[in-house]
Amino acid sequence: MNPLAIVPLFLASIGRSTLGLLGVIGRLAIFTAETLSHVLRPPFYPVELGHQLLRIGYFSLPVVGMTTLFTGAALALQIYAGGARFSAETVVPSIVAIGIVRELGPVLGGLMVAGRVSSSIAAELGTMRVTEQIDALTTLSTNPFKYLIVPRVVAATLALPVLVAIGDIIGVLGGYLVGIGRLGFDPGAYIKNTLDFLEPADVTSGLVKAAVFGFLLALMGCYHGYNSGRGARGVGQATTNAVVSASILILAANYLLTEAFF
């Protein structure tokens, strides 16, 4: 093949990829705008919202709690080992609290809930798409966005800050248990150092991040499930895409929000 002929083919492949990416971004932006436009407009479905709050929030609590507990415990050990090199072991309580509340609590909580909830939403809506239940809702004059998508997005946005707040407490508790049980800290001094160095802005920033992460993970689950391909393969692909895209967006949003806050 003529080497010069490779250049147009290479440029064409770049063009196709770029147009495909822009198409996905455009469809996602339209889906997001349509979802937000239905949030404050009746009719509302409080029973469905309550069901989603229970499913997304309450049933995700064990996963988030166990994750933050062991993360806080491991973080205390790592900070103590690193601080010992500089005779700075006393920073363990404050760094554990700040690290959990600012970063690890919201991010790990968001990722764990994304793995559990985004996949579930995508599989459920994808199955409904394949079995034409979404089309049946439209036939019955029920807006699918109102009944299926808005309750899930609102529930995740409201539930994740609560989950992260509880997870932060459990994570700090994990560091506390390791600190007094394995590292020899005085219980009173550990708690005092934690409270002295933890500021309201640290807690607020983590909860705002959690709300954004909740919105993103539910949106990705709904988007990929609602636009699922036909058949079992389409539902499986939608589930995978939902978890992957939610995880990437959570990490990207975490960086942008950290830049904005700090």
CA(first)-CA(last) distance? 54 Å
Q: Could you list the spans in which at least 5 consecutive residues all have pLDDT below 50?
A: none
Task: Give the overall pLDDT as a whole number.
Answer: 89
What composes the largest sheet? none
Descriptive notes:
The chain contains 9 helices and no strands. It has 262 residues and is mostly helical. The chain has one domain. Helix 1 crosses helix 6 and helix 4 runs antiparallel to helix 9. The termini are far apart. The model has no long low-confidence stretch (mean pLDDT 89).
Brief summary of the model shown:
This protein is an all-alpha fold and 262 residues long. The chain has helices at 3-39, 46-56, 61-83, 92-130, 133-139, 144-181, 187-197, 200-226, 231-261.
